[in-house]
Amino acid sequence: MFVKSLLVICVVFMTLFAFAQTSYENEKKFTFNAESLNQCFIQAGEYYQIHPHLLWGIAKVESNFNPYALNKNKNGTYDIGLMQINSSWIPVLKNYGLKNVSWLWDPCYNIYVGAWILSQCIQKLGYTWEAVGCYNATSSYKRVKYSKKIYEVIKPYTYTRAE
After folding, report:
1. Model pTM?
2. How is the chain split into domains, by residue range?
3. Taken in order 44, 50, 52, 54, is the CA torsion positive or negative?
4. Which of the listed CATH numbers 3.40.190.10, 3.40.50.11600, 1.10.530.10, 3.40.50.720 matches domain 2-157?
5. What tens-digit pLDDT sequence spans the chain (163 residues)?
């Protein structure tokens, strides 16, 4: 049991070191501006059939558009990049072709991964606010709270037809 715990601690430490190392290196590799990010939101939205404003709202709430954001959660996982991709997704993403965790530091790649994660929620829950909340939380209460944050961010950029 001790050896297993030690192994887990070593893996976590190595992962943290890799994140720290790639964060600085990738800061120089990936250049972006507002227009290129906008195109990534549009293209990822088209690909996954998700409105770009919704993806934009998630990035605003998650990282305030900081592609180098790295946050440690209480459960020991990390949230990475613009869309704050949780490190618990890494094994799943590797099954879908993620070769290097440092790819998550690429702002456009990060947006596409975030759109894919949201699309998984939409497949389960429909195109609903609950699905938006699923991007960030598992409990219903937290999903409602999160989706309200997203709504408040994107509300000024949406419109409704007059009846």
Report:
1. 0.78
2. 2-157
3. negative
4. 1.10.530.10
5. 544 443 333 333 344 344 444 444 444 455 668 888 999 999 999 999 999 999 999 999 999 999 999 999 999 999 999 999 999 999 999 999 999 999 999 999 999 999 999 999 999 999 999 999 999 999 999 999 999 999 999 998 876 655 4
